[in-house]
Amino acid sequence: MAKTATGQVAAGAMIDEAAAVDIGELSQLVGYAVKRAQLKLYEDFLKCVAALQLTPAQFSVLLVLERNPGRNQTEVARALGILRPNFVAMLDGLEARGFCARSRSTTDRRSHELSLTEKGRVALLRARRIIASKHEARLSGLLGPDDRATLLRILGKIVREF
Amino acid sequence: MAKTATGQVAAGAMIDEAAAVDIGELSQLVGYAVKRAQLKLYEDFLKCVAALQLTPAQFSVLLVLERNPGRNQTEVARALGILRPNFVAMLDGLEARGFCARSRSTTDRRSHELSLTEKGRVALLRARRIIASKHEARLSGLLGPDDRATLLRILGKIVREF
DNA sequence: TATTGTTATACTCTATAACTATA
DNA sequence: TATAGTTATAGAGTATAACAATA
């Protein structure tokens, strides 16, 4: 009884055999807090879209292709912070599943103009709905609209100006 | 002249040859914003302590050992979210550099009681000073004390309750 | 039987150099 | 010569199974 593997105190003011390890000032370091939050959010995102077999990175590619049809691999990869060599296998996977297409540009035969297929559009629609109704909804419920907006504002400042 | 590789507009209202790719609603997804901010912060942290040859993960281990002497590998690894098998090589590296020590527990000869050496204490002191004066100082300067505290509060809520 | 530290291993991410075909 | 897509490859980081010593 009294399963206290994570160090919680059992009912009745019973002290756990081993006090919790103290991470000290680590919890006051922004980088550490961001890292821990990122792992939590990534894990939940993955669980939410598991049924669709999409990773956060794949989801982000579909989103960008929808909004930027005709762009080439270099442009899309750079916008998402993905290195061009690593983007190749990613696109291969999405293309093999029929979610997107490469077509040689007529004006520059080195480039591939990227586009979402109809199947890709459907997958993106489903994913977007699940993310909104499960993942983001739960997060908004926890934080409330004000804190959610504040968090986005502060993180955006770090991304753009730090 | 007019180095616009990243899509910035040059002086004189000159329009860049290729408009920036639009990442759309991605910028409104908390998970994406957190991920991008995490990469920025990690990169700067790494640059700041490059002279000391410490990664954020190694820094966090030294911090926890200082505040929790005598704990074993399982306890410290779990507090930091590191899997026990992966913690072995990490400790090997820190021990080889003389920053920490393992000693067999007298009460449970399976465990190693971990401790910081004097050399580890010195390295931690230096790292802490650099992080405070360079990394965190620059971030606080960008955000201001209120936004920094707010960010820590919201991220802490996600880590603990999401 | 359960736990600690450990080894082995595998899979994903990320990073760099270099090739090809085009420009 | 420079660029787009690609290949090969190497290094982190992370994950699980299993083993020896000990409880």
General description of the model:
The structure is a homodimer of 162-residue chains. The first copy, chain A, has 162 residues and is mainly alpha-helical. Helix content of chain A is 59%, strand content 6%. Chain A contains five helices and two strands. Chain A has helices spanning 30-48, 56-67, 73-79, 84-96, 118-161; strands spanning 100-104, 112-116. Chain A has a two-stranded antiparallel ribbon with strand order 1-2. In chain A, strand 1 and strand 2 (112-116) form a beta hairpin. At the A-B interface, helix 1, helix 2, helix 3 and helix 5 of A face helix 1, helix 2, helix 3 and helix 5 of B. The structure holds a DNA duplex (23 and 23 nucleotides).
In short, what is this structure?
2 copies of one chain form a homodimer. The first copy, chain A, is mainly alpha-helical.
